[in-house]
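User: Can you fold this complex?
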Amino acid sequence: MTVPAAAAAGYSLLVLAAVVAPAVVLESAGDRGGVRGAVGADLIGVSAAVGVPAAVLAWRGVRRTTRAGRSRTDVWIAASCGLVTVAVAASALPTVVLHATTGLPVLDADAGWPVPALWAVCLGAAVVAGEASRRGVLRWLAG
Amino acid sequence: MPALNRRQFLAASLGAVGSVAAGTGLGSQLWPLMGREDLVPGRTPELVLPAGAWSPAADRLTFAAVGDTGSGGRQAMAVADRMARGYQDSPYGLVTHLGDLCYYGSVEDRFDDVFTRPMRPLIDAGVAFELAIGNHDGALHHSDASLAEIDAELRLLGTPARHYTTSHGPVDFFYLDSSTPGLFGDDASVQLEWLDDALASSTNQWKVVCMHHPVYSSGAHGSTPGADELLEPLLADRRVDLVLSGHDHHYERTHPVDGVTYVVSGGGCKTTPVRPGRFTAAASSTLQYLHVDVVGDRLTGRSVRADGRVVDRFELRAREGR
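Assistant: Here's the predicted assembly.
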């Protein structure tokens, strides 16, 4: 594996970790409190389902722009900005949205799917924000 | 290292500052907040309990004590489920709620989320709930809005007043409104005089005081300022056996202080750290409730974690000199 390919793979793993981390934080808090598997286990699955495509997207984005002859400096500056955005948004968005929607009937946990679906939408939005900021910075650097 | 042009320098600087800020913010603020708060809605416990399965008697009582349950989240549901399972194993007819029934909104709007749904099995079994007002039950400093919130909670739970006494079998319970100014403000004397009279006239075998703010705590909030001077001498003089409180989101039991044992049972839906202090006999940052059996002159308490593990067990003998 070449150095650029390894770097892209490492970057995609960081994106995956950023997306999965919030659910791991919730689950580990539940573990400490004595409710193993009851707080964040399903959300880790949902996060992985969003995070794996996000990681592939990040890997392809970095590889494509590198192969297209863009400055490596530009590529990695933009990738760093994208990673920061996705990391912050993946934690902040679910927190803010869950706090803002407490008690809404539409988030009926007994129905099973609404909460994981909301979690996935928040993470999806975080991934889109991260990718948008990466592309935006890259475009600005090229301008 | 390649030389950076102006835009690259700006973007790299922004990225570096953002990375540091994001790392610091996530590690020290956002992730701890996510772990501490119980924001993910939880499923209603599905147990169906036999109604009225406890046996009322003059010399025995089993009750549960829990505080700070008001999130409606997954951790709150896990504790409520454990309380229902505790009823299955050892039925009780009373829950002393140690305050903070409702977080994240008004109790009028969220009563179903934070109380009816999690406690459904116990409510259906006919278990009575008695509330000690907490600081989130209307915020501090009793504004008109917070008083309305407190009134709403009292009405919804059928609780008679902000401070009141009840009697169950061999135990007299004394519920205080420990918020400011309820117990520690300018008009504290009203409630203290009431408590002194009520304790003096109590002739039952056991005296248990329930209040939200802990007199002694080694947790995030810590011991309530002024409580040791204002309240502790009165509790000791009137030979109170046990003081139950919440507010800090952990479990803690003190060694007897002038004969009084103080318990914090505030792990109803959230956890915060606890570092045992000089007065601590047992402590654990965990989701839990307290299951108490009183038989004659013996009281046995068990702090039961959400997964059923007992994190502390203690036994008290009724104090002499009644």
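Residues 60-317 of chain B form a domain with the Purple Acid Phosphatase; chain A, domain 2 fold (CATH 3.60.21.10). Chain B has one domain: 60-317.
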